[in-house]
Every structure is written in C-alpha cells, then in structure tokens.
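Quick one: structure for this chain?
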Amino acid sequence: MKTYDWIVVGAGLVGSAFGYELANAGFSVLLLDRSLQSPNATRYSYGGVAYWSGNTPLLRQLCDESQAIYQTLTAELDYDIQYRELDLLLTVDADRDPAAIAPNYEDFLIPPTQLDPAAAADIEPLLNQGAIAAAFHAKHGNVVPRALAQGYQTAMQRQGGILAIATVNGFEHSGNSIQGVQTDQGTFHGANVLICVGGLSRSLLHQTGISAKVYFTQAELIETPPIDGLNLQSIVMPAELDRMGMEAEATQPDKEPLWDEPGHEVAPAVLDVGALQYRDGIVRMGQTSRVLTNPQAPLDAAASEAQIRAGVGKVLPALQHVPGTWASCLVAFSGDRLPLVGALPNRDGLHLCTGFNGPFLLAPPLARHFAKFHQGEPTDVLAQLAPDRFSHT
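Got it. Here's what it folds into:
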C-alpha cells in the first residue's frame, strides 16, 4: 500500500501549482481531479495577473514575487504558458464621478493612471466613449489559464508526481488524524491531504463534518469561438466591482447559517461588465455573479446571456452580438478577500487552499511558500492566511 507525502485534491490552477511545488521540493505527490475537462474556475478565468494591485504589505510582497516568478516560469516548467502583458482599462460608468473612485487605487503598489474617455479609446478603440466618464489604466499580466495549469501538471509529473482521475467523496481517518481520501476509484493513502477544489470546498468539508469559512459564487459568462476581424486590444473591467459588495454582504455573521442549507440566495446577483480576447481570437466576457447556497442550483442561461450581452454592449458595442456560448462555474471567496491556505484545526494532516481573489497572481508565490514551509523553512506569509484566522475575530 503506497502512502504519498501529499494528496492534492483538485487539478485546477491552484491544485496544479501546489502539486508542482511540493513535488519540486522532493515530496511524493498524488494530484487528483474528477475530470481534467471540468467546467471549473480555471477553465473560465480571464487569467489576469494583477501584479500592480497590492495595497497591503502582504499583497505587495506577493505581487513582487509573482511578477518575478512569471518572468522565468515558461522556462522553468518547459511549457508555453502564453504569458504576456496587456493594457488594463478599468472603466467608470458615465453617471459616476471618477474623483470619488480614484482614492480606492491610491494605495496600490502601482496606482493606475486616470484617463478621459478619448484617451481610453486611444488604447481600446472598441470602447464606447459615451458610456464612460473615465477609465483607470494599468499594465496587467495575462496567461492562458488552461495552459498554465497544464504546464504545472506536466512539470509535476517530470518530478515524479502522479496525476489521476478520481472523485473524492470522503476522507480516510483514524480519530482526528486524516490518513487519505476515499474516491470512486478506491482509497488513496497520504500523510497529508490538501483540498484545492475552489467553490466545492465548503460542501466537501461539510459533508464530512468539517466547517470552514469559505463561500462561493456562481460566475456566469459568455465565451466565443475565435472571431476573425475583431481586435479587442486590452482587458476591460469596471473600476467599481459590485461583486465586492455582494461578497461582503453574503459573509455577514447573520448569513452564516444559510450557507449550510440548500436553496438560499444570500445576496442579490450582480453584473460586472468585462471582456478579454486571447491571441487565438477567443473572447470571454461577463460576468454575472450569484451567491446561491446550492452549488448545483439551476440557472436561467438565456436570461443571463441576454443580461451579459446588454451590459457588455453598452461599453463595447462590437461584442454585443458576436456568436458565443453561455457558461458558468463556481468561484470561491473568503470573508476578507484573502485566500485560506494552511492546516485545518482539529484535523491532523488536513489542509485547505481556496478562496483566492486573483488566483493567477497569488497561487504561484503561495505555492512556493507552502512547499518551502513544509520543508522546514520559516515564513511569515502563511500565518496571515491560516484557515482558522476567522475564529479569532
């Protein structure tokens, strides 16, 4: 019976990055996922690397580390992750005062520059100048999401890690000590289990009697086939994300009991209009976010698609009627917009890694910190992200 040093559950970006770094540090690693084609947050992400956005000492440190890692990551993984740098335009609605929004960005590592509509349209000709009062401009890293996950997976396998398809439905344990996972393919044994299943983390842990303050939205978007003749030159997003307010409302203490009951909508849905075009011509645009406590809640795809198209069409008219397919995925978040990374209390050998706001920015440096920590190297980063931090508030 083989016992792995680490069983990593979830082969999206986060699980793949952590699996690679652990294998690279010399640990035996088993990376599990129910499917390598899952409609997960990695599959439908924009792949943005906002290395300019750190507004606390911790986030500034991770931004600097992330930017440095990406400069050499293609060579390190020996895989084309298609990293590039793009212009980011954070649009301000026409009825909003940019001066009221600008202070929100003053403390960032690299504060964005405010542009008037004409200057913003010089950067992105597809913008409808009449729909915006201004835009904030920054240089923004970008990677093809699935390419990065695959790059980590292949590099992990070169280091001796194993990638396998299996659905985890429980944990093997002795008392409070976790000793592996139970799956539809049998039981796998490990000294440590790391849960990296994003929006499914809460329900997976809850069904085995483990509580963690991680939450999730249903994120809805439209993905197009490659579009000839359309050239969206920048990433366009709103300067004010309604999703942030929705998440804050959904994590209030009085809402906590609702999260373990199916059938609740914890806060009203929001639409944050944004779009990105990859080098191959594919466009992703959206997104509507809903906080529904049932991860499998049915959604009205047609109504959602119409709403997204109408919203995007106001800012980027050329995109409103392009061919595309509606899609959705679960996106995990925490109560303070920082990920939960580390050991779960009262469960020896069980670790959690989820709730990333900006996984493509944060996962690469945090995976490296995590692996080095478990090699015995000290770090003050992970203590600030411990899953039990909310029990002290």
